[in-house]
Structures are given as structure tokens and as C-alpha cells.
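LIM zinc-binding domain-containing protein: structure, please.
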Amino acid sequence: MAGPNIQNGILKYCAACKGQILGLTHYTDGQQIFHKSCLVCINCLDQLGDEEFYDVDGAHFCVTCYQEMYGLPCCKCDTAITSRTCYSVLGMNYHYNCLLCKNCKRVIELEPVYLYQKTFLCKKCIMGSKASPQAQESRTS
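Here you go.
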């Protein structure tokens, strides 16, 4: 059986259940320590031990639950943007794969984006068309 976890002469206790941490295996949110089974998503109760998670005022969320509750919806597909990559064009947010040129179907990355007749065009396509005088340019961010 594992012995108590002692660091600098102080016994360690789980922030969730207040039980003593035995052995060396424990998880931390950067401020407090937890048993593996106690560090869970507050919404779905999945264990977070080895997974990336978000801390919102001491409440822990798995990535999926955080994005569902706090994430931005994509203006094209209307699902939550769950990755850290989000493109914002003219105040609207898009997944990386949703910001496509209407003409060539390429992903419009960090380049000017042109809005023409409510569709996006990349710089190459807008320069090759007769639409450029009426198009509105924006940059991805």
C-alpha cells in the first residue's frame, strides 16, 4: 500500500474530497491537488487527469463542455468552435475549414478575404474576376 504524500513536511489532501493523497500519483490544476478520480469535468463528470481542461473560477471543464458552454459558434456551420484556431472576419467567427473561397474552394488562411455578394473570395480569385471594384476587403485574425 502506498504511503502518504508528504511534501516539505506537509501532508497533501485532495481539494475535491478532502481525502489524504496517498502515494505519488495526484493531479493538479496549478493551484490545488486532486486524486485522479476527483479531478473531473463539472458538467459531464469525465475524468480530466491527463486531458487538457479549462478552469473557470475554480470549476473544471473538459474541452468539449467548455466550448459548448462558452465557445463561439461558427457562422457557417453553426457548431461550436472547439479548437484554439478561430478566424474572425467582419466580426463573424469561423472554423479553419469553414472559411473557404466560394470560387476555388481553398481555405482562406492569413490573407485578405473579400466579401462579394455575401460570399467570400480569396485574393487570387477576386483579382482574376471583374468583381474587385465592388468587393469589400477584410483580413482574417
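Notes: Residues 89 and 140 are 5 Å apart (CA to CA).
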